[in-house]
Amino acid sequence: MQRSTFGDVTYNWVIGALAGLAVLILIGPVLIVIATSFTTSQTLRFPPPGLSLRWYGELFDPVRSAQIHTAALNSVWVAGIATLVGAVLSVLAALAITRVARPSARFLEASFLSPLILPTLSYGLAALMFFSVLGIRPSLNLLIAGHLVVIAPFVFRTTLASLTQLDPVLLEASANLGASRFYGFRRITLPLIAPGIAAGCFLAFISSMDNVPVSLFLSNARTSMLPIRMWGMMESTLDVRIAAIAGVLILATLVLMIVMDRLTGLTKRMSG
Amino acid sequence: MQQALARQLLKAAVTNSAGIAAILMPTLAAPAAMTAQPLTLDGITHSYGGGLAVDNVTLEVKGGELVALLGPSGCGKTTLLRIVAGFIQQGNGKVTIDGRPIDTLPPNRREIGIVFQNYALFPHMTVAENIAYGLAARGESREVQAQRVEEMLATVQMARFADRKPKQLSGGQQQRVALARALAMRPRILLLDEPFAALDKNLRLDMQIEIKRLQRQFALTAIMVTHDQDEAMAIADRIAVMSQGRIEQLGTPVQVYDEPATLFVNNFIGSSNLLNGQVEAAFEDGYRVALANGAVWSVVSKARFEPGQPVVVSVRPEQMLLADEPAPDRIPVTLKLSLPIGGELIHDVVSASAESIKVAIARRPGISSADMALGGTGTAYCGLADHARPALFSASNP
């Protein structure tokens, strides 16, 4: 067995300390908000004087938290529909762009991805002005349209990545065996890029769920969204239910991640 | 009168039954008795951007024949294959199968089977699903699919691997699956794209035999694309040697090896010694050539040369010999190197005019160098073996 030198030991210590610091900064806030959500106290204070489920009970009370429930359902609905529509549009766009070698395709690719780079805040303001010029009143459908622009690039990017990894010879083989283009898409292309689409949908859904800038400009009192509602509660009352919402969101994200891993892991195994 | 009528009837019956037999025969003996269909390429020309990839290629592949397109990369052989498959629409020319043009058909309606270079098996499907793919696409029932898959798996001896994924198979096994998948569609034509390039050397011969067997069994007209002359020599009925988009020579493996039409074919197929010389005189079926190294050879050739014309004489290493005694048709050489390669001993010798010459001689067991064979003098005389058929090419027109 090789003896570790002084250099090795120092190296391990420094790297270990840096990693520990990173974990502390990343996970610390999550742990604090979760601990706070179980407090017995009336205020958002850390450390909690005692532990209870009282704020979760309060959060799930259908009468007292009706507005939060509406906002949460709005957020899930907008994120779900925007992700679904975004996925269909992105897959179609990615398919077209990988098939065309012209420079115009590269330009389109860049412009489809541009919402990822452009400041979302500017887009939110621009969208609000644009839609009011057109005379369109704020509604859930308008929110879906607004979110769609911001989150579709996530699906587009991951789909594009998996399409460029797809061996074009497989589709030639499919055609050679007498299959139509659509049959080849359904049985070869789609199953092989499905993990990429799923990963993009996951990112898009999460990003829509906690999008503040677009919702800030495009929602009103009737179409309130969860992050905006949380911010409102924070400003006015310092309601501990905010911590409980954060707890629920963290749990939901964890569950989604595990499901995603199972699904893509499964497809990975299916693809050999 | 009656007798004549009876004879007439009998005759009709005989003719008829022969006709019936002819109709029944193919079904009874299928697939071995499926009729092989000829494939014709007529004046195929294709260019990418500015460069001419295929230049006016005409080729007739007879029914049941395997023709190899042999040439270096960029010679147009792969483009030609992709034109036949329908992946590329040729700029000019016609492709016909059994007399019917197929140029307007999309790839999925050509009924041409392909074994792709890296097999192109569908990675997310099992072996059985891969083989059934074309049948499923065509809308065949599950029973028909299952039956055909079982039959094809048996044909390529892969029955035990039906439920494996392609990644769990070796290269040779993947190729068997690729063959089964193509043959399951009962194609009219089989195209093989560098079929042995990805295989271990030891496995190649086995797969060459296997492909030849299946091609015969299914009476398939086949085109194989390869840059490897050994592969082409091994399984092709005829070889089309290609260079710069054209067919340089079309012939049986023995023809292109023994009687190369051009210096390119000569150099591309097998190894050869190129010796400079000058035509001295013509005789009935050839020429007397004075080599630059001093030897004088009689070379059989049908081509036309003028006395005094500079020429290149090409001799295969295995058609040369090393001797102890000098002679007018022998070149004095010094031995540089001897390599025992399997059953042959390859000697690298150098003539007085500094030409490097390779001589291959059948090796006797225990012998590993020429010194032992020649008695250890180090100087030898290099000449033509009795069976030698040197080829003659014009030096000005390589």
From TrEMBL, chain A:
Q: Which Gene3D superfamilies match?
A: MetI-like
First-listed, main subcellular location of the protein, grouped into a coarse class: membrane
InterPro entries documented for this protein: MetI-like, MetI-like_sf
- A Pfam family found in this protein is BPD_transp_1
User: According to its UniProt record, where is this protein located?
Assistant: Cell inner membrane; Cell membrane
Arranged from A to Z, the UniProt key words for this protein are:
Cell inner membrane, Cell membrane, Membrane, Transmembrane, Transmembrane helix, Transport
* TM ranges: 12-38, 76-98, 110-133, 139-156, 188-209, 240-260
Gene Ontology CC annotation, any one: plasma membrane
Q: What is the membrane topology noted in the UniProt record heading this document?
A: Multi-pass membrane protein
Residue span, ABC transmembrane type-1 domain: 72-260
GO terms under biological process: transmembrane transport
Repressor as a keyword of this entry, yes or no, is no
Any signal peptide, and if so, which residues? none
Keyword flag Transmembrane helix: yes
Family label: Belongs to the binding-protein-dependent transport system permease family.
Q: What is this protein called?
A: ABC transporter permease
Q: Which organism is it from?
A: Bosea vaviloviae
